[in-house]
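From: lab user (bench 3)
To: helpdesk
Subject: output format question, protein + adenosine-5'-triphosphate

Hello, I'm new to running complex predictions and I'm not sure whether the block I got back is the full result or only part of it. Here's what I submitted:
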Amino acid sequence: MSVDPDPTADDGDAVSPRADRLVVEDVVTGYGNHEIIHGVSARSHEGVTCIFGPNGSGKSTLIKAMGGKLPLWSGRKRMGDRDLTDANASDMVDAGIITVPQDGGLFPTMTVRENLLLGGHSVDDDDVVRRRIDDALDAFPVLSDKTAAQARALSGGQQMMLSFARAMVSGADVFLLDEPSAGLAPALVDDVMDQVQTLVDSGVQVVLVEQNVKTALRVADHVYILAQGRTQFDGPPADLAEEDELIELYLGIN
Ligand SMILES: Nc1ncnc2c1ncn2[C@@H]1O[C@H](COP(=O)(O)OP(=O)(O)OP(=O)(O)O)[C@@H](O)[C@H]1O
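Helpdesk reply: Thanks, we reran it on our side. This is the complete output you should expect:
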């Protein structure tokens, strides 16, 4: 469950493991001259923060704005005390925020190990990269005996696992996941949520856009519901249970 940041726990540049990390406030953005997000505030909470909403409600657009892949037209973005309002995707990685795209973004003809090494491309210390690869393989042991295999030889679920493991090697504190279960067989959606939980257990915060609301609620610690680019709900899953109308209108679950 989310834990309120302790303002007295500030220790300079270090990001407190208990504080909310990535914060966006009053974000307006879109494509061309088409405004899609009309003033949304959101943050990465402890554990898994889910962004739900109907098709076309702006979930992917919001996560792109959070990850620096889309500029803010107005509003603010920060990580702890560090202002990131004008940061691009590369600045965001430097600040410890990594986006895992819907297709995982792997290099299919490279091996599992080569993909993992690429996760550490911006890390100067080879020992740190090696240690992080070991940690990532410990977290996702299925990959351990496949390190010499090409990424494309892995199953769909294993490829997503490799995408998560590669992001771990970057050392990011906040992971932005845009529909990681999209394109996978329904039977694998549960496995992907287990993998998301594995990420959280490694100490990171996850922001998750997901269509499979029921399954994602299994790992959710905080929920936002977007509709037509506006926030309709912002709270813990337990509070959502009381919102019959919202659930029926926007989530299509019962
Ligand atoms: N690259 C783009 N250029 C122009 N318009 C876009 C672009 N990407 C998305 N849109 C539009 O922005 C709106 C919100 O799309 P977005 O993908 O953010 O919604 P979503 O909630 O993630 O939808 P879904 O659940 O279907 O993935 C839609 O009207 C969509 O057509």
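A quick orientation on your result: The first helix runs from residue 59 to 66. Let us know if anything else is unclear.
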